[in-house]
Amino acid sequence: QVQLIESGGGLVQAGNSLTLGCAVSGLTFTTYAMGWFRQAPGKEREGVATITNAGRTNYADSVKGRFTVSRDNAKNTVYLQMNRLKPEDTAVYYCRAQFPRESYWGQGTQLTVSS
User: Fold this and answer.
1) Is the pLDDT of residue 101 over 90?
2) Quick one: which of 5, 8, 36, 40 could link to 48 by a disulfide (CB 3.0–4.6 Å)?
3) Is 69:49 a contact under the CB 8 Å cutoff?
4) How sure is the predictor about 100, in pLDDT bands with cuts at 50, 70 and 90?
5) Given CA atoms 53, 95, 45, 99 in this order, what sign does their dihedral have?
6) How many CB atoms lie within 10 A of CB 76?
7) Cα dihedral angle (72, 70, 32, 41), rounded to 10 degrees?
8) Mind listing the pLDDT tens digit for each residue in 19-64?
9) Dihedral, CA of residue 89, residue 92, residue 98 and residue 104, to nearest 10
10) CA distance to 20, 27, 84, 95, per residue, from 111 (Å)
């Protein structure tokens, strides 16, 4: 049974930092690309950051320079370090494990950034 469990969300003030984690089980973690997505109220889910199984990263323009995605293959965990948070970063954050023809999602964790 594949499980992706996000953690680390919460309420923070603008300008502060927070790190999200996503612990993965039930699949061969090292073969999957991992991604972070978010969905704000009334908006579509959007990609935030991805990291391939080889460690190559990609970011949405809105978070470039502020967010860093990383993975610890020994712990089957992917992280999203978020700095200089803004109120517009408020959303439910989801992680996704992606293989060429299959993907799995976590249940999401809420981040609220107050101004």
Assistant:
1) no
2) 36
3) yes
4) confident
5) positive
6) 19
7) 130
8) 999 999 999 999 999 999 999 999 999 999 999 999 999 999 999 9
9) 180
10) 9, 27, 14, 13
- Side-chain-side CA neighbours of residue 61 (13 Å): 0
3-class DSSP string for 6-74? EECCEEEECCCCEEEEEEEECCCHHHCEEEEEEECCCCCCEEEEEECCCCCEEECCCCCCCEEEEEECC
Q: Which amino acid is at 50?
A: T
Which tokens go with 29?
């973690």
Q: d(Cα 88, Cα 77) in Å, to the nearest integer?
A: 26
Strands of the sheet containing 67-72, edge to edge, are: 3-7, 18-25, 77-82, 67-72
Beta-bridged to residue 34, according to DSSP, are 51, 97
Residue type, 98: Q
CB atoms within 10 A of CB 58: 14
Residue 75 has pLDDT above 90, yes or no: yes
